[in-house]
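We store sequence with structure; for instance:
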Amino acid sequence: VGQIVEVAYDAVADAWQMQSPTAIASATARFGGTGADGAFSISSGTTTLDAAGARVLEKNYTSISITGTAKLTISNPHANGTILILRSQGDVTITSSDSAVIDMQLMGGTAGATQASANTAGSAGTAGKTSIDLSNGGGSAGSGGSNGAAGTGGTASGSVVGVNALRMIKVGAGGGGASGGTGAVANNSGAGGRGGGGIIIECGGTYTFTTGTMTTAGSTGEAAATNNAGGGGGGAGGDILVLYAAVGTDSGTYTVSGAAASAKSGSMSGANAGGGGGGGASTQTSGSSGTAGVDSSAPGDGGAGAAGTATRLTNTWLN
């Protein structure tokens, strides 16, 4: 009572659906955050924020400055991936020359593991999750390959645009592990690649990003290390969303790519070739399926992970 919530109209249900998980005390607090964590300023080295296994890590700053050669990343992401939310009441300035000024690679859904025995299907990766509904997913995970059959790519979840986009950012799903195939020994099929995490930046002042790369790219699945074994599926890229009150120069690089397909083993000896793991899916794109293993011919390659999305918008709907 007496507080503000975010709602979106559901035309199918002919009803308004509340989007904010809790009521928001004031319009000032809901965009750009509370500033409770003070000013954030780094100019060299790597600063690591501990996610402590949380699916969402939110920081509320009065301003953000990443300059010089500094880099920001996180540790201990959730198995389904972590979304990093950086809220700033004032300006956000990113001019660091580091190749990954905000690095959320390997922070998405976990990958399917290396297969430890012959004649056994590879394990599936882990689906990514959204920032609004942590029980449901971003793209689904790639499935594991089996002997003679490919793992299927993950399925895209579809994107949500407009006023709801802020809370619908997704992490990338992990790629599936490949099958060992007959004759493969422990840990010789390719593991999948982990998906990339998600990034949300709310800038209540002027947003400036001139150099370096902000990345949520998926990681490449492992190549097989023995005869008959398939390659792991690639991880999907996570999403990036930047909302700002004003923009200065926005010429930095945003990388949300899914990982390329990984290779099968180099040769084949006998029947039951291992299939490659499927690639993880992202918000809008399904992952590629792995390649089926062909007995007495060749095991399968892993499928490629899907790319995430990078969106920058002027904050007009909250003003």
